[in-house]
Amino acid sequence: MSVDQRSHVSTRLQVHNCVVQPLLTDLYQITMAYAYWKSEKTSDTAVFDLFFRQNPFQGEFTIFGGLEECLRFLENFNYSDSDIEYLKTALPPTIEQSFFAYLKELTAKDVKLYAIDEGSVVFPRVPLIRVEGPLIVVQLLETTLLTLVNFSSLMATNAARYRMAAGDNVSLLEFGLRRAQGPDGGLSASKYAYIGGFDGTSNLLAGKMFNIPVKGTHAHAYITSFSNPSELKTKTLINLNNGKEQDLIDLTLSWRTTLSTLLNISESQASDGELAALVSFAIAFPEGFIALIDTYDVNKWHFLGPKQLPVISSFGSGILNFCAVALALNDLGYKAIGVRIDSGDLAYLSNKSRETFVKIAKEFNIPWFANLTIIASNDINEETIWSLNDQKHSIDCFGIGTHLVTCQRQPALGCVYKLVEVNGMPRIKLSQDGSKITMPGKKNAFRLYGGDGFALIDLLQKSVENLPVAKTKLLCRHPFDQKKRAFVVPSEIQPLYKLYWENGHIMQRLPDLKEIREHVKESLRTIRPDIKRNLNPTPYKVSVSDDLYEFMHELWMQNTPIGELS
């Protein structure tokens, strides 16, 4: 990496979360460090793998997030004087003082970090990050690296699933700050929702920090704060056609009377307070007018089914008042943006809104009116979107909060950080639960592609093995089931790891959020549709080379105690 590239990286990393520091860890990391130190293991080296065991949300893929924040952490890894003073009070008084002097000098300059590119589609058991370096230092990194990767990857995956449900032609906005798990949870959710495919956020601080587009409308409180048009202090707006001020209230009331007949909605159903609020908002934002139209749910009966059963819908005041204001704005040379619906039957109301806009567009020869944006919110989750798709909704944009930012369907990913090598010697963790057995030693990972451009299988090899070659027959084995194996002839092979950190420096150019967001899209395009589908997705295969399989099972047998019957 050039000096200029390193300078660019350092500048970007100034936006460092001050909460992410060496003390953002578990106590046992420090107690282990002291025990290692007492055992004179300061010269020992180790390799750790960071990976997860199961994909979230009952799916079969995950999006890797949080790498840049891990690198920020390494760049700033150093115990401050106040950290050391605190540790002296938190640890037992028997701790030797020279240990604290040792801690004070620790940095990550002797650490190497290999990782898959951020924003890549990843799968269980394939290490996302491989950390090499002094045993004590790389042990101390564990908790912080896990907290940086776990939620980031979970959020990015959740957002990507919402994007797939909504499709490419519907906008997605993240509205979850008020429901997030605290301020940092809210910021992280905004950031990784954008990476996963959302188009914008309501979170202003996230917009400032991460250059994410910010979007928003207004709340029901704004509508209910008005009672009558007569209370408006400002009633006029400049007519862009002639440059003169014109009374927007009078123009809107005139249009409301006209539309009442056209739409068969009585003016008595329309709230004057709501009208006043919408006119006020239109005067404030004449070129960006979006209205919340469900504050006053004036019930209107319609009849469905062979028995003509009555069904109540809320379609009256809001749509009538909005259209009146939008047409008044049109007379003055402005184009309204659209409406937001925050309650009720979203499929029905969106379709009725679209029908209304089309009808008005044709009646008054205003073509753009038919394409007004319809935004839907109201506690939407992934299943809601799939259901709305089945109902043939007319929604252009979803505003999603609680279910997105809290990942209610699955609140944790479950990444782990496991020791796989010490001083060049492999280490394995055994368990009666096969899913918790680790794959020992330093490994490389490759993605094998078929001729159709889709990923076939991921392959793990010992780091000392020869690199796999495309268009040659490769034996791929299940890590733990000797009967499951297959020959694969890949048309293309992609090495998954890059060296991201060495000698105290970031070794790769770090992409911005837009680039990571595009990489998510590109990576997802290489995964077969049946693996990504919402219902009963096909599991993606992760394999090991024959050499790694034999190595693992030999080590497994060596480390498994032999029982004795008597």
From TrEMBL:
<comment type="pathway">
    <text>Cofactor biosynthesis; NAD(+) biosynthesis; nicotinate D-ribonucleotide from nicotinate: step 1/1.</text>
</comment>
<dbReference type="GO" id="GO:0004516">
    <property type="term" value="F:nicotinate phosphoribosyltransferase activity"/>
</dbReference>
<dbReference type="InterPro" id="IPR007229">
    <property type="entry name" value="Nic_PRibTrfase-Fam"/>
</dbReference>
<comment type="similarity">
    <text>Belongs to the NAPRTase family.</text>
</comment>
<dbReference type="InterPro" id="IPR036068">
    <property type="entry name" value="Nicotinate_pribotase-like_C"/>
</dbReference>
<keyword id="KW-0808">Transferase</keyword>
<keyword id="KW-0597">Phosphoprotein</keyword>
<dbReference type="GO" id="GO:0034355">
    <property type="term" value="P:NAD+ biosynthetic process via the salvage pathway"/>
</dbReference>
<protein>
    <recommendedName>
        <fullName>Nicotinate phosphoribosyltransferase</fullName>
        <ecNumber>6.3.4.21</ecNumber>
    </recommendedName>
</protein>
<feature type="domain" description="Nicotinate phosphoribosyltransferase C-terminal">
    <location>
        <begin position="442"/>
        <end position="551"/>
    </location>
</feature>
<keyword id="KW-0328">Glycosyltransferase</keyword>
<feature type="domain" description="Nicotinate phosphoribosyltransferase N-terminal">
    <location>
        <begin position="23"/>
        <end position="150"/>
    </location>
</feature>
<keyword id="KW-0436">Ligase</keyword>
<dbReference type="InterPro" id="IPR006405">
    <property type="entry name" value="Nic_PRibTrfase_pncB"/>
</dbReference>
<dbReference type="GO" id="GO:0016757">
    <property type="term" value="F:glycosyltransferase activity"/>
</dbReference>
<dbReference type="InterPro" id="IPR013785">
    <property type="entry name" value="Aldolase_TIM"/>
</dbReference>
<dbReference type="InterPro" id="IPR041619">
    <property type="entry name" value="NAPRTase_C"/>
</dbReference>
<comment type="function">
    <text>Catalyzes the first step in the biosynthesis of NAD from nicotinic acid, the ATP-dependent synthesis of beta-nicotinate D-ribonucleotide from nicotinate and 5-phospho-D-ribose 1-phosphate. Helps prevent cellular oxidative stress via its role in NAD biosynthesis.</text>
</comment>
<dbReference type="Pfam" id="PF17956">
    <property type="entry name" value="NAPRTase_C"/>
</dbReference>
<dbReference type="InterPro" id="IPR040727">
    <property type="entry name" value="NAPRTase_N"/>
</dbReference>
<keyword id="KW-0662">Pyridine nucleotide biosynthesis</keyword>
<dbReference type="GO" id="GO:0005829">
    <property type="term" value="C:cytosol"/>
</dbReference>
<dbReference type="Pfam" id="PF17767">
    <property type="entry name" value="NAPRTase_N"/>
</dbReference>
